[in-house]
Amino acid sequence: MAIKIPALVFLGLVVSLISVASAIPGTATYYTVYVPSACYGYQDQGVMIGAASDALWENGAACGRMYKVRCTGPTNQGVPEPCRGEVTVKIVDRCPSPGCQSTIDLSQEAFSMIADPAAGKINMEYNQV
């Protein structure tokens, strides 16, 4: 039994390092009108949601995907330390080019969980969960 516990601890450490290493850098902004959405029309999907940029959209395949998003820092000098943490969001909409200014456009509520909304746009990392 003594050998199994260290092996499990080691395995857990390796898995957590792989998870951290696989996070993808990007940017996040926020929006405030959630319905209708490209994925669910007028069905309310709550407020822990986001809109996928063209890089993630994949012709609608992104609908329903869950992403863990973590603030990593500012994109400008307006708010030098905007970060508060991380949040998991469901993709419910598309943030189309050329108007989309980020990788994931978060709901205002989701953005507020990870960063100061006064920042407007932040650097972040994300991975699908």
Automatic annotation (TrEMBL):
Pfam families given in the database record: DPBB_1
Cited InterPro entries: EGC1/2 (IPR044206), Expansin/allergen_DPBB_dom (IPR007112), RlpA-like_DPBB (IPR009009), RlpA-like_sf (IPR036908)
Keywords: Secreted, Signal
Cleaved signal peptide residues: 1-23
Keyword Signal set for record: yes
GO biological process: systemic acquired resistance
Cellular component annotations (GO), alphabetically ordered: apoplast
Subcellular localization: Secreted
Domain Expansin-like EG45: 25-129
Entry annotated with the keyword Cytoplasm: no
Protein name, per record: Expansin-like EG45 domain-containing protein
